[in-house]
Amino acid sequence: MAGTDHKKPSKIQEDGPAIILIVPQLGENIGKAVRAMYNFGLTDLRLVAPRDGWPNEAAVAPAAGADIVLDKARVFDTTAEAIADLEYVYATTARPRDMIKEVVTPKRCCELMRGFVNTGKKVGLLFGPEKAGLKNDDIALSTAIVSVPLNPSFASINLAQAVGLLSYEWFQTGSDIPDSFTPTQDTSPATAGELQKLFDHMEEELKEAGYFRADQRRSLMRRNLRNIFTRSELTREEISTMRGVIKALATGGGAGWIAEKAEIALKAKKKAE
Amino acid sequence: MAGTDHKKPSKIQEDGPAIILIVPQLGENIGKAVRAMYNFGLTDLRLVAPRDGWPNEAAVAPAAGADIVLDKARVFDTTAEAIADLEYVYATTARPRDMIKEVVTPKRCCELMRGFVNTGKKVGLLFGPEKAGLKNDDIALSTAIVSVPLNPSFASINLAQAVGLLSYEWFQTGSDIPDSFTPTQDTSPATAGELQKLFDHMEEELKEAGYFRADQRRSLMRRNLRNIFTRSELTREEISTMRGVIKALATGGGAGWIAEKAEIALKAKKKAE
Question: Is A98:A55 a contact under the CB 8 Å cutoff?
């Protein structure tokens, strides 16, 4: 999906969770994680002993322009050093561990983190190396485990995907976007009166065309037709469009067209007589 | 994160949404999308005019073993053909369109789709090409728009990430995983009586060590200590561990160690006399 608008203010969330990648292997994966972080406004990347060192040219292209995150990234020798300033740390794991530690969903994790951040605390998320995942010693340093619900027979999730999911859930907890809305752009929703005129027009033409054959079905058919168009939540402009469509159908073809032809034929016949 | 357990039953959701990629460019991206789909149990992949044809060798390695999805993938010439059997189709877009069409969040979209699937309907999700996103003509074929809330100044989300997010939200709507739980493995939570014995042991040793100096602070300090350990929700085994720790601290060093040394010195002195 493409849709960056550089004129819009950036929703950078300085206090968002630090993303801590432990011994990441491929620069490409770091770059993709960076892109996903910044898609959701996160900028605090911390790398613990990245295999190929840092900076890493291979991370630049996959980051797709999220240079602010690449430039700010910090490197640490150990997990303990990387998290030293954080009050709450969540360890991402896919497989269960033999550990007595609270396990939360990504959604719950982000709700908790948002609560902590709102009271001035610093939080972070630990991600293990691509293949092996986090070591138990890293998990033991964490407040709790966050586990993405996955297909148990195919639970090997890509590192950047995991970073993206958590970043997405974090962004959601601070988002005021409604679950559902219908943009009306520069148009105005039609009034009930305008809609009524559409119904009158349509029903008049349908009556002319002999659509309402059986009287006992007429009220049912009218109701069905009205439901179709009330459900569409038409704008004023769309009412005009629909009225044009009805007019065209009624006069340009079908019964109207036949009637017109018949009238012409009749006139021609009268003239000839 | 690594964690596939092939012994676990696969949560394949035959009725889950079809993932429809319109004119996808890179085989690698198709493969990564396939991996993300199958992470969340989705298997119905439909490709509309993939640029490099199909099958595509470049998709195999990034799919990371989700062969069931690759093998079942179907190719169509047009979007209309790809969605012909579906009752509800949601178009993913990041940027707003000049269209009067309902816009829903991924979460809401998946709740709606789950409801439709539960009543026997077929549903699908449209994704546009990597750079350009969906064309308005494809969106016009859709029931509604689903838009991922994103950083507005960096809204270019990777195709596989977008597929992953929607697949994740779909899986969530069918997941019975609790928001939070603490596995106790093969251990047993301690009873209040066992915990009380720990408190008695600890407080007795602390009293001996002169920890409760001021009588007026004693009850406060006891309460604080008790809160630390009740909050930890200790198991029976951890109670044993803690009692061992207290014993070691009390006798192996500090006051206990000094007392022991003093006793030895006293005995030696008595012997010498």
Answer: no
pTM score, two decimals?
0.81
Domain A18-173 has CATH 3.40.50.2000: no
Q: What is the distance between the alpha carbons of residues B243 and B249, in angstroms, rounded to a whole number?
A: 10
ipTM score here?
0.80
Q: Does B159 touch chain A (CB under 8 A)?
A: yes
Q: Which helix (H) or strand (E) holds B226?
A: helix B215-231
Query: Residue B146 phi/psi, 5° resolution?
Result: -115, 125
Sheet holding A103-104, edge to edge: A74-76, A45-48, A18-22, A123-127, A88-92, A144-146, A103-104, B180-181
How big is the A-B interface in CB pairs under 8 Å?
A: 239
Q: What is the pLDDT of residues A50-93, one digit of tens each?
A: 999 999 999 999 999 999 999 999 999 999 999 999 999 999 99
The domains of chain B are located at 18-173, 192-272
Compute CA distances A107 → A40, A146, B79, B103, B263, whole Å.
Answer: 15, 9, 34, 22, 59
B8: contact with A, CB 8 A cutoff: yes
Cα–chain center distance at B168:
10
Q: Is B187 on the interface with A (CB under 8 A)?
A: yes
pLDDT tens digits, one per residue of A84-115: 999 999 999 977 777 888 899 999 999 999 99
Rounded CA-CA distance B192/B229 in Å is 11
Task: Check if B101 contacts A (Cβ < 8 Å).
Answer: yes
Residue B201 distance to chain A (closest CA, Å): 24
